[in-house]
Design a protein that fits this description.
alpha+beta; 8-stranded mixed beta sheet; 12 strands; 25% strand
Amino acid sequence: MKTYSAHGKLLLSGEYAVLDGALALALPSKFGQTMQVNPPRVASSELWWNSLDADGSVWMHVRLDLDEMRIIEATDGPLADRLLSIFKVLFRFKPSLRDLLFTETTSLPTAAPYWVIRTELSFHRQWGLGTSSTLISLIAQWCDISPYVLLDQTFGGSGYDVACAQAEGPIFYERLPDQFPVFRPAPFHPVFADQLYFTYLGQKQDSRSAIRAWRSQMQDPGLIEAISSISMAMTEVQQLQAFVGLMEEHETLLSRHLHIPALKEQRFEGCPFAIKSLGAWGGDFILIAADNPFLEIKDYFELHGCGPTLKYKEMALGL
């Protein structure tokens, strides 16, 4: 048995614009996903796959025949199709993998006569912290293939989330045309970390729909440059109010470009705290900056149908 792990993700700056080359500031989370891979005791092309949520419940069970590339059994047809498509990409880009999988065995007497893979999330699947990106990272580790090739041929997206999956702290991430993504550690260690929080809005956002909506807008080189400058500045400011100013500037720029009201105007008018969308607007987590007591912040968002609210140090990896 082999075990692999991958971190979840949060995009502090650069949402949408990262798709067109903006420098983004991203944060791997302490929450993530693990994967256990158990070879069969006899050579087999059959695979049993079980995915567990944070509460231990099975949210996906799939049986695949990887030789015939067909689904034998599944609790969710569309999800099973997506899983099968990942294996089709793996075999296309790494043909030798097929023979390796169909011949590998283990001497463990407790092994099943088929492959058994078990994934387990440490965050609730609806939180949007990277169920898909961590899966891509886990499979790429197991099969020794580039996670970016696998991502590009399956889920798509900018790839910052895949970079976060193996990062150990905040990163700058940049995707340039016709090149592999570039990322490096970001010096984001805010002295005001105790005044930063993350709140789940209560609804998961469809990243693929958000990407399509962004692609329908005209590209603006000035916007890309402005967002990149904000990403850099976020790692340099030493005062909470200066950071709040950058959060608000980022929200205003994207609101104008997307023709969508900023979150505070749309859902939290009169909110006494600074808030910023993270990732696709309208769902998943938001960033909060405030020097108010934690319980006051937590209660405010609970009353507005959100939750949970987590302190920065509870979420962020690499403090």
